Amino acid sequence: MKALVYNKDLPKKIELQQREIPKLQHPKDAIVEVTLSSICTSDLHIMNGMVPKANNNIILGHEFVGKIVDIGSDIKNLKIGDRVSANCETFCGKCYFCQKGYINNCEIGGWKLGCQIDGCQAQYVRVPYANMGLTKIPDNVSDKNALFVGDILSSGYFGAEMCEIKTGDTIAIIGSGPVGMCSMICANLLGASTIIAIDTNEKRLEIAKQNNLANYYLNPKNCDIEKEIKNITNNKGADGVIEAAGYSNYKNTQENHNFNPSKPYDYKSDSTLELAWKIARPNAIIGVVAMYEENQILPLPHMYGKNLTFKTGGVDAIHCKKLLQYISEGKINTDFLITQTYKLDNIIDAYDLFKTQKDNCLKIAIEK
Questions:
Q1: Residue 317: CB partners within 8 Å, gap ≥ 6?
Q2: CB 33 within 8 A of CB 69
Q3: 53 within domain boundaries
């Protein structure tokens, strides 16, 4: 079969190769024919060497839908021929963390597909613990409709869920990329009355606006975000902030980070985490779903008294069935996120486009 293989020694780090079709290795496995997959920023993180646990010479990819073609003897909730959406996490469902709903921390699982074992950017993929990691797609939901359920849509829901949204809350979302837009959709579902989209990319803000995902669309290049948030919230700040951008460009020296109680806080950076805690009201929750490529700084003395709660991901993608139901009922539609479609034969070109983000690229669908 055709498969996109990551190898750190390759000039481009990736290569389309011929691989053997995977076989069942365990009674809880399933073999899925991949009908549609997508490229994620985390795939680029692997290629950039920012995921130490990633194994070399593996097939990339973890976001996909497909059809079951073989199934282990322990799988009772699925059958050959079922169309399924895949969870980006591998989890057993029985260990301490799984029982608590923390499936990203499964004692024998976590982010495996396309990271530590062969993933989905191929014609076929083996899915361990398929009874947990695969969800049957309702008949009225297309493969395209369901493509993002197990990863970026779950991540958006995770970010909104972390903020413990109450009816009437104002939620600010930093980053209007695919995960940020999914966070906007889910924040609305969970009861937020005011959603504020923040991004430096005007085209992405326009896409969010065209799809009516927020009430306000703010660009830090064009306005003072802190002042705008205060104006919107009667000077109190956002009730919750979802950080879905993961950008930082620290400019100051360590000396400038040192706490001086006689001086006002004047630390300057382009850190989206920095922005998140600044625009949050006292006692707010900040949900961090972004993946950073460098360490972040929390100037705790300056934040003292604001009583903020920070929550961070890896995504616990435990709501796939619920999200598919929302899609089936017409309450969620993420089809607009697919801005380009490529054949598997041309996946190298798709990666080149995804890396450069040209042509208003949000998400790329890869067809078999």
A1: 87, 88, 89, 103, 104, 150, 151, 154, 155, 158
A2: yes
A3: yes
Radius of gyration of the chain (CA): 21
Of 40, 7, 55, 27, nearest to 120 by C-alpha is: 40
For 109-175, the DSSP string reads -BS-BTTTB--SSBSEEEETTHHHHEEEPPTTS-HHHHTTIIIIIHHHHHHHHHTT--TT-EEEEE-
Looking at the fold, whether 161 and 291 belong to one and the same domain comes out as yes
Verify that 288 and 362 share a domain, yes or no: no
pLDDT in tens, 288-332: 999 887 788 888 888 888 999 999 988 999 999 999 999 999 999
Residue with tokens 């930082």: 248
Domain containing residue 288: 155-312
CATH number at residue 163: 3.40.50.720
Which has the closest alpha carbon to 316: 287, 274, 277? 287
Regarding whether 298 and 246 lie in a shared domain, the answer is: yes
Rounded CA separation 319/338 (Å): 22
Nearest alpha-carbon partner for 318 in 161, 167, 166, 164: 161
pLDDT beyond 50 at 253: no
Q: Are residues 160 and 133 in contact, defined by beta-carbon separation less than 8 angstroms?
A: no
- Give the type of residue at 77: N
Q: Report the run of H or E that residue 351 belongs to, with start and end.
A: helix 347-356
